[in-house]
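Sequence in, structure out.
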Amino acid sequence: MATSSTTSRMADGSINFMNKDAVLAALGFSEKKVNKAALDLAHLARAKWVQLAKGSLHTSLREYQNAIQVIKLSEDGSEATTDLVGQFPNMVEWGNPAPVDMRTWLLRYVREGGKINQGKNGKYRVIPMRRSMEGTGMAIPLAGKAYDKTIGEKASNALRMAVLEELKSGHPSVQMVFKNGKAQTVRRGDQIQAMDGGPLLKAQHKVGLYAGMSRFISQDGKHNQYKIFRTISENVGKGQSWMYPVTKGYHFLDEVQRYIAVEAQNMFASRVE
């Protein structure tokens, strides 16, 4: 039994998961049943999409996943769509043919709790980057992993362990988490100095990957987090700093399209039987 299903990027940027008319023509089901099947498939497709992203993305996972919107059903039930919102998530998905200055969105949009400051030389903001130091937490990128390709995996792991020991032996920053879930630093601890932050990964970098890292502990002392802080501002020349490189994109939706085709066949075959 053959069914027709497509995943396409629509003119308004939405992603169309299912063409219900093609399914109706192929199976002759009632409109009500096909509406339900189309919506079920759309939810399956979205779940697959998120699963693929979790398996491939690291530092960009949170922003990309948050950009995938909830499923919307058209008034006549013929289309189930969602949106991938934001410039950066769309570059991750579709790729970009030329380098893009990340200031265009990092100094324009912030998540809840973030802040863009106005200095005498323009806008700036401090961006916290959470890192894993011991390989725990699938959604948290492992600190210094990029050094594996430049100094070798063994030396990279040794550097990470040395930084971890230094952080554990120093004074940590202390965080208090309030009832609304927001965290506030109540005491600033020691940070990894530039000289101990590792080699420069790229020519345009000013410090190593570990420079500025600090260990944060909860007020009860039971939980550790490791964060690096970087400042981005308008007061920087148009060089390579904070430039997102040319990428081909991950094209997760190509795999989602193939997944829908198989799931649609299995779903409708079982309902016909």
